[in-house]
Each structure stands twice: as structure tokens, then as C-alpha cells.
Amino acid sequence: MTLSRRRFVAIAAGAGAAAVLAGTVPAAAAPGLRRWKGVALGAAAEMILPADAMDLLPAVQAEIARLEAIFSLYRPDSALVRLNAAGVLEAPPLELVEVLGRARALSALTDGAFDVTVQPLWALHARAADPTLADLAAARALVDWRGVSVEADRIALARPGMAITLNGIAQGYVTDRVAALLRREGLTEVLVALGETRALGGHPAGRPWQVAPAAGAEALPLVDAALATTEPAGHVFDPATGRPGGTVARITVQAPTAVVADAVSTALALLPADRRAAVAEAAGATRVW
């Protein structure tokens, strides 16, 4: 499964970068707006929201912490870490069941290019810069999305040593959950960037939000939709080979929700060009750059 640099930071040593919110400015130059910066799922995060909504930050941070306790790979007590350690998780959180269900559907759609069970490959390459063919084969034998059994009351991995990473989909899911919290509080013009970017409405100035998919890249307009970018160079492992892969230098996906944009950008980075459009459309993406 492909992981951008910002996703990689939650798994192994490396530098992360959150989305660049082009066109957003400090409060002094944008009356009524404030910028919050923090960390979500081990990566830099930020939001642009009305000044009179800053009292919602404790609720936002509590929701991020609650979801990190489910999806994080760097918290030893998270639901995901416990699943990986034991190979089974009884009475799993509903959010974990939902995300794994979404992941399974995309794995089927992409014939396994998107595969949440690639964690053994990350662990192998973190231990050895140039793993042996035997070690690669052993790690690849543990990678198979079909070996994850997901029921409302139980999640199980088919073989000892299998492990899951959700860093190609969970950031989008968390972004959507925070956006939903803000919408329930009545906010309609907010930009949320928790690894992936979700806009509620447009900019209060009556124009689209401007979101650059990477530092130095041209900004893209965003209104009531989501963007996710994958830059696979050096941070993509092809489940079919167990080695770094990727078919593009950068791919950006727009979708109605951040979880879809996140997962689809992750998947498309490993697919050949002639398959990307069909997969993106079937998965619910609206534009691909």
C-alpha cells in the first residue's frame, strides 16, 4: 500500500509534512479566521476556522485522541496495536470495523494494490535497508488483505505474524470525523487538514479554499469536498513484490469525503495508468491530478 511522506512518519523514522493550505493567512490579514496547528496520528495537522469557534478546540482534540486510541501504530494501547500483537480483537471499536470494511472493498476493487496488511513489509524494510530475497518472501507471505476477517464483534488475522497499517486510510477517516463534529456545531466554512484536507463549504470571503497538494505545487480550489495527495517516491511498497514501487511521482485525488480521497490516492499510486480512471470513478473520486 502506498504511503506519502506524512503517512510514513507514523510507522518509521522520517520527516512528515501536512497539506499546504495555500491562500490561508494569519488572523491579522484574514479578519474573523484563526489557524490551529497540532498533531494528529503522528503527523502535523492544522485547521482554519472562525475566531468565535476556537472554544470547540478541546472537543476536536478529544475526538482526535479518541480516534488515535483506535488507529495509531505508535500508541502501545491502541486497538490496532492490540490486534496486531494478538492476531485477534474481540468487541472491536465500531470505527475500526468501518475502516477495515472500506479498506476491504478497495482492496477487492484494485486486486490487492491497496492492502492494509503490508505492515510486515514496513517492519522488514525498517530493519534492513536491503533485505534478502528470503526475508522478502517471508514478509510477503504475511501480506494478504483476504486474510483479515472482520465482524462486528470480532476481527481476526489469518496467520501469526500478519499485521495491519491503516495509515493510507485512517487519516482521511479522522479528518472526516472532525469535520462532521464541526458541522454539527453549526460551522459551514472551515478547512480541516489532519493529514488529508476536507473543506466545509468555501472560504468566508466568498471564494474556494486554495489547497496546494505539496510544497511549491500549484494550489487547487476546494469547496465542500476533500483532497488527498500521495507522493510515493521512497515510501511505497508494492504488495506484489515487497519492494518500493509506485507508478507516479505524485497523485492527488478529490472526493466528497477525505476517507475516500485518502484511500483512493493511496491505491492509484500503484496502479497502471490505464486502470486509474475506472478505479477512481468506481471508488467515488471526482477528480484526479
Q: What are the key terms here?
A:
single chain; 289 residues; alpha+beta; T-fold; seven-stranded antiparallel beta sheet; three-stranded antiparallel beta sheet; globular; FAD
Count of spatially separate domains: 1
**Residues in helices, as a percent range:** 25-40%
What string, H for helix and E for strand, traces the elements in order?
Answer: HEEHHEHHHEEHEEEEEEHHE
Q: Tell me the name of the CATH homologous superfamily.
A: ApbE-like domains
Strand content: 15-25%
What integer value in Å does the Rg equal? 18 Å
Can you tell me the CATH topology? T-fold
Major β-sheet profile: 7 strands, antiparallel
Distance between the termini: 19 Å
SS element count, helices: 9
Strand adjacency order, main sheet:
1-2-6-7-10-11-12
Point out poorly predicted stretches: 1-29
Shape designation = globular
* Overall pLDDT score: 87
Enzyme class: transferase
GO molecular function: metal ion binding; transferase activity
Protein name: FAD:protein FMN transferase
Catalytic activity: L-threonyl-[protein] + FAD = FMN-L-threonyl-[protein] + AMP + H(+)
Summed up, what is this model?
This protein has a single domain (5-288), classed as Roll (T-fold).
List the helices and strands and how they pair.
Elements: H1 5-8, E1 33-40, E2 43-50, H2 57-71, H3 79-86, E3 88-90, H4 94-109, H5 119-127, H6 133-140, E4 148-151, E5 154-157, H7 170-184, E6 190-193, E7 197-200, E8 209-211, E9 220-222, E10 226-230, E11 251-255, H8 258-268, H9 273-283, E12 287-288
Antiparallel strand pairs: 1-2, 2-6, 3-5, 4-5, 6-7, 7-10, 8-9, 10-11, 11-12
